[in-house]
Amino acid sequence: QVQPVESGGGLVQAGGSLRLSCATSGRTFRRYTVGWFRQAPGKEREFVAAITWSDGSTYYADSVKGRFTISRDNAKNTVYLQMNSLKPEDTAVYYCAARLYSIVIVAGAYDYWGQGTQITVSS
User: What is the pLDDT of residues 80-101, one digit of tens each?
Assistant: First the structure.
């Protein structure tokens, strides 16, 4: 099984950029869909973006479309989330998660989760 491990969180000013990484300490992400979710204080965990390892298909939440880009590096077995034009409302703990096969946007459909990394966007 895969074990996602996130890195790259931090504090950034509004309008700035950050890149998150998600690697696995277990098996490779081959055959998996890897998704990013986020959870702000007092709110439910929400879908951000996902990518299928097999063909690189992607899907984004409307709130991040055009600002965030998800990608994968086969050689490094790593998924990235490039976040540009960050807004204070992007502040949350960001989680990487994995599931076999197709993209879905429901958190409960993902079987493997990282510990999360904090993103704070100051105004």
Answer: 999 999 999 999 999 999 999 8
User: Tell me, what DSSP letter sits at residue 108?
Assistant: G
Query: Distance of CA 86 to CAs 16, 20, 100, Å?
Result: 6, 13, 30
**CA distances to 31, 75, 111 from 94, in Å:** 23, 24, 16
Task: Report CA 113 to chain centroid distance, whole Å.
Answer: 11
Cα dihedral 65, 68, 74, 77, rounded to 10, equals -120
Rounded Cα gap, residues 47 and 36, in angstroms:
6
Residues 27-80 have pLDDT tens digits of 889 889 999 999 999 999 999 999 999 899 999 999 999 999 999 998 899 999
